[in-house]
Structures are given as C-alpha cells and as structure tokens.
Write a structure and sequence with these properties.
Helices cover about 60% and strands about 5% of the residues. By secondary structure, it is mainly α. It is elongated and about 100 Å long. It binds arginine. Arginine (ARG) binds near residues 25, 103, 107 and 319.
Length: about 450
C-alpha cells in the first residue's frame, strides 16, 4: 500500500516501485514504533485524539513491536508497513496516528533514535577494544622496541607505549561519539512535512516522552538536515582509520622481515597453494574496509551538498551508508581487538644507533649547545657505520676525541634509555603505568 493514492488515477508502476522502494529501513522498526508511541501519547495529551484512541494506538504499536512485522512487497517503506499492520490490528482508528505528522519528520526522528543507540554501541565496542589494547600493553611496559619515524628506527621506547598510542586514539574516537550523542538527542517530531502544522501539537511533550531534553528550533532544518548522519559516518570513518593504522602495523609486525609478533592460529588464515603461509587477513580486511569508510564519508557529504530545503528523496540513500558504517566499525573493533589480545609479541631489540639522541642529550646536560651535540654525535654515528658496529661498541679514545667529556659509560643501554624518558606521556615504564590506570578507569567506568 502507498500512503498517497488519492490524487492519482493510476497506481504506481512496477518500475517506479522497484526503483524507489528500499528495504534498508527495516532496521528502523523499533525506532519507528518508539517514535509513533510518543507521537500518539502527545496527540492524546493535547486532545487531538481521545485517551482511548491513544491507548488503542499504543497497544497496537506495542503488539507490532512484540510480534515483529512482515514487510510486504506493497509496503513503500517502514512507516507504511507499520501503519498498514496497525490497520490490520486495530482498524480505522489507526488512521489517526499520522495526525500532524509526515514521513519527513518521522524518518528524521527514526534516524536520530537509531544514531543515539548506535553511538552507545560504538562507545562500548571501543571501550572493549581499549581494554584489550591496555591488557596487552601492560605485559610489555619494559619490552624495548624502536619507535619509528619515516619507517626508520628512531628512538627507544616500549612496545607497551607504542600500543597505548592506539588506545588513546580509540578513546578520542569514543569521546567524539559521546559528544555527537548530545547533538542527536533533539526531537524533530512536530516539524511535519516542512513547516509544522496548524494543529496544536506540542513537540516538547514528544521530546520528553522520548527521554530527550529538546525539540527542534526550526522545522525546515529539522526535516531537511542530515549533518548528524554524516557526522556519525565520519566518526565511524575516523575510528576505522585508527584501527586501520594498527591493522597495517599488524601486517608489518607479523611479517618475516619485522618478526614482532605471532598471530594466533585461529585468527589467521592459510594459503591454498603455499603450505607455510599464515596470513593476517583480519588486519588486511580492516585496512580495506577503512578505505571504504573514507569514501562513504565523502558519499554522505555529497548526498546533501546540492539539495534545496527541505526533504528530498535523495536522503533515502543515507540509511544504507549509516548502517554500513555502523556494522563495519562494530565488527572491526571487535575483530582487531581479538587479534591483538591473542597474539604473542617478541620484537627484536632495536639497533644501538637509536641511542644517538640520548647521547646528544648527555652532552646537552653538560652545557653543550644542542646543535653542536648533534654534530658531535652525528660524527660518532658515521664512525660506527663505517665499521659496521653499534654506538656502544665505539672505542673510548674515539669518544674522547669527539668530545673530551665523553666516556663509554655515557652511552646508555637500551633499558636505561627507556627509563630516561623524563617527559610525562613519553613512555618510561612508570609513565606507561600511569597511562594504563587512566585508560582502565575510562574503559571500565564510563
Ligand atoms: N523512505 C524515506 C526516506 O528514507 C522516508 C521518507 C519519505 N518521505 C517522503 N516524502 N517520500 O527518506
């Protein structure tokens, strides 16, 4: 059934139906019903329908919510399907539900209800992921690795510090979700098709019934905007990028060149041809799906860019993008968290040249200007490279010649270098312990 037959002499063609009807909105069933129940209650409260009519509508809607709904080929969308079923259940009074409402404010509300719940799901998923990262990091607060810039070994750090970088990134993604959830909790119901209604509706009552503090301020933007859908897709996209960067590291780290980690058997895949292969497919798919997340972010922005106010059917396309973004991030935070938690880490020690900045800082502490210290240590690095040895293998007289104060004891061990990180947040074992506590508190309590 369509909700708009009256002015047409002919029913819709199969072609129109096939092209315009989409079923993705099935996922909005419970949100659609929640919105309709709030709307029916508001209608009764302001006296537009009687108490008993309101009760009938609510009872019918609750039955649909409980029993579910079979979408019929003739239903144009989820709103139509619910209304059709309501007629079947409670008869003519069902026709009063759409009083003072349009599918334009209805879909805007359904989407906000979905997004509000979706944000909570993602926050929970990201918290779970952060806990898995933190628990892995905790085992490696003193496992030395090289930090990298330009994919060249840079300085000494711990594997724990490196992993926690991802925990903080994921936490910020979750913070974005939380902030977003506040903006979502505004009810568009009452905005009608575009400029509200001549009937004495009270959008504040509907908002309150939905548990939200506020209703729309401008009916036209309330039905015509999809910035929140785009914001959700972006936040999911950014979180996918966070996960994808870790996925890329997992791909590198599990390679024979890096040998930082061994993947668990049950979360790796084999090759149909080469018997020895053990492949990081989860990480690779996470990386590939992040690329799709990025292009979907562009798609949902593009969808809105050239639309005149208010509602345009183009907006129907937002839902499949939003749902895909939602499913993609939830499954990726779960899968990658599982890979990380079950992997074994055994990174090789960094090369000793990564101590060069520490050595320059030894000279700086003795009053040598940094530029000069850099030059002196650069000379020592060149000398070590000429002989194919590490900094700590340089002869005392070579050190002395570079700067009179330098002795072999000035070259820290890898472990000492790690302990020396003095700046808060820079990854000494003590500092990593502070990060672990902060992240655990957040991931457990919020
Ligand atoms: N299926 C539509 C959508 O997703 C619902 C709103 C339809 N409104 C309309 N005037 N045709 O956007």
């Amino acid at each position: 059934m369509s909700l708009w037959g009256g002015r047409f002499e002919q029913g819709p063609s199969d072609l129109l139906w096939a092209y315009t009807v989409e079923r993705a909105d099935e996922r909005l069933l419970k949100h659609d019903i929640a919105g309709s129940i709030a709307h029916a209650r508001m209608l009764a409260e302001v006296g537009l329908i009687s108490e008993s009519e309101g009760d009938d509508l609510v009872r019918g809607l609750e039955t649909i919510s409980h029993d579910g709904l079979d979408y019929q080929q003739t239903d144009e969308d989820i709103h139509t399907a619910v209304e059709r079923r309501l007629f079947e259940l409670i008869g003519e009074v069902a026709g009063k539900l759409h009083t003072g409402r349009s599918r334009n404010d209805q879909i805007a509300l359904d989407l906000r209800l979905f997004l509000s719940e979706a944000a909570d799901d993602q926050i929970a998923g990201l918290q779970r992921f952060v806990l898995q990262v933190v628990q892995t990091a905790e085992r490696h607060t003193r496992t030395p690795v090289a930090s990298y810039t330009h994919l060249q070994q840079a300085q000494v750090t711990s594997l724990g510090h490196h992993l926690l970088a991802y925990a903080w990134m994921a936490r910020r993604d979750a913070d974005r979700m939380e902030d977003f959830a506040r903006r979502v909790a505004v009810s568009p119901l009452g905005a009608g098709a575009s400029v509200g209604s001549s009937l004495p509706l009270d959008p504040a009552i509907t908002a309150e019934l939905l548990g939200w503090d506020a209703a729309f301020d401008n009916s036209m933007e309330a039905v015509g905007s999809r910035d929140l859908a785009a914001e959700y897709v972006f936040i999911c996209g950014q979180a996918m990028v966070t996960l994808s960067r870790l996925a890329e590291e997992i791909v590198l780290w599990s390679s024979q060149e890096f040998r930082w980690m061994t993947l668990p058997d049950d979360l790796a895949t084999g090759s149909s041809a080469m018997p020895h292969k053990k492949n990081p497919d989860i990480a690779e798919l996470a990386r590939g799906r992040a690329a799709i997340a990025a292009s979907d972010t562009a798609a949902i922005l593009g969808l809105q860019a050239s639309l005149p106010l208010t509602y345009n059917r183009d907006l129907q396309e937002d839902k499949s993008i939003v749902f895909a973004a939602h499913d993609r991030l939830l499954s990726t935070s779960q899968a990658l968290g599982a890979v990380l938690a079950a992997s074994e880490f055994h990174p090789p020690r960094p090369q000793s040249l990564v101590l060069s900045l520490d050595l320059a800082e030894v000279l700086v502490a003795r009053g040598v200007p940094f530029r000069q210290a850099h030059e002196i240590v650069g000379g020592l690095v060149a000398e070590a490279e000429r002989h194919g040895i590490g900094l700590s293998d340089l002869k005392p007289d070579v050190l002395h010649a570079a700067h009179a104060s330098l002795t072999i004891d000035d070259i820290p061990t890898i472990e000492e270098s790690l302990e020396r990180r003095a700046v808060p947040g820079s990854g000494s074992p003590t500092d990593v312990a502070v990060q672990v506590i902060a992240l655990k508190t957040w991931a457990n309590l919020d």
